[in-house]
Amino acid sequence: MNKNRYLIIINTMMHQYNSNWLNKFNEVISKRKKILTYRYRQAITNSNARLITFLNKKYINFSSNDYLGLANHPKVISSYQNEAKISGTSTSSSGHIIGYSIKHKILEKKLANLLDYPNAILFNSGFDANQAIISTIIGKNDCVITDRLIHASIISAVIQSSGTFKRFSHNNIISLVKILKTTNKYNNRLIITEGVFSMDGDQSPLNDIMMYAKATNSWVMVDDAHGFGVLGKNGKGSAYLKNCKPEILVITFSKAIGVNGAAVLCKYKILADYLIQCARQLIYSTSLSISQINAIDTAISIMQESNCLRRRLRNNIKRFKNGAKKLGLTLIPSNTAIQSITFNNIEHVLSLVKKARNHGIWLNAIRPPTVPMLSSRIRITLTAMHRKCDIDNLLQLLSLY
Q1: What is the mean pLDDT of each run of 10 residues along the chain (401 residues)?
Q2: CA distances from residue 80 to 101, 105, 228, 260 in whole angstroms, order as listed
Q3: What is the domain partition of the chain in residue ranges?
Q4: pTM, two decimal places
Q5: Which numeric CATH code is attached to 82-304?
Q6: CB atoms within 10 A of CB 372
Q7: 10 Å Cβ neighbour count for 316?
Q8: Which residues are catalytic?
């Protein structure tokens, strides 16, 4: 075969492969646009826990996870800036090389002491932390049992693992017990739930889960991204509030703490050692910058002393819920900062978002595949920074729809 003919055949094959991929991409995107689940990113000028600016217009922000408003706290910002002048903006290395500083070590110890665990390990994000735990400890003879509404980071990690995946009905202990009865053949079982569920805002029945886990020699992992900082004494979170200690506790700093990053709290030192030795997400990622560590440390100190902010947040939640009840609105039952209204019809959700923007209120539509079909919603997040008038304006808008 001459060279030119060979190149023609190769080019034809490459075009075919490219066409297959492009056709696949086009099919998925076209379908999502057709059923109104296509995701758009919007370039925000700036935002904080109360206000957001988009296209030179300010809106009242009801989409932020900055529950205590610490992301814009002057002391947190100064901590980051002051450390950046000394150590720069990156560690420029994995923590297993030169990216693990004395300040990383001190913060891990501080978190362990705060939450009464022997060990804490810092990660770049909650997503990374969840992926690391499951990909590192779950083997082919293990079983992972999760709440049906568990976070996407956990679902994707379990699917990619070699373990068996089971899901129990949301917050349903009877459903969990049935699965536990049929999975005792596995070497290990890990039950995973969230302290506060990110889409519904309701809380997990941790005490009951812990009781049945202990009875069946299973471990429990709790992702407390939306509970840490706002629930329990001094914001210690869901597990502390329920007076229980899961084998694995994941906390994140990107919600109530107002800074990026996460930590895994380990009940057993040997588990922490194993993760440090084997978790690829930890070993092969550049560690959190020392500037971030400084900001996290400052924010956690403020969080511990911020009962007034948590009280303000609780009052805002109460004001919204009472107002919604008077209007006859049906909310997903939740006593946390996450308050959701579901709709069967995606068009209704998108229409409400558009109407809210016209009234200077920033809401977001949460649609499949993030949530199940027929449960598209407006996910309202309240913060300690919201004023009474902000909540009243939101209620007035919802009364018109």
Answers
A1: 62 65 90 88 91 95 97 97 96 96 98 97 97 97 97 95 97 98 97 96 98 98 98 97 97 97 98 98 97 98 95 98 94 96 87 93 89 86 98 94 73
A2: 15, 17, 21, 12
A3: 43-68+306-400, 82-304
A4: 0.92
A5: 3.40.640.10
A6: 12
A7: 21
A8: 65, 151, 194, 198, 223, 226, 255
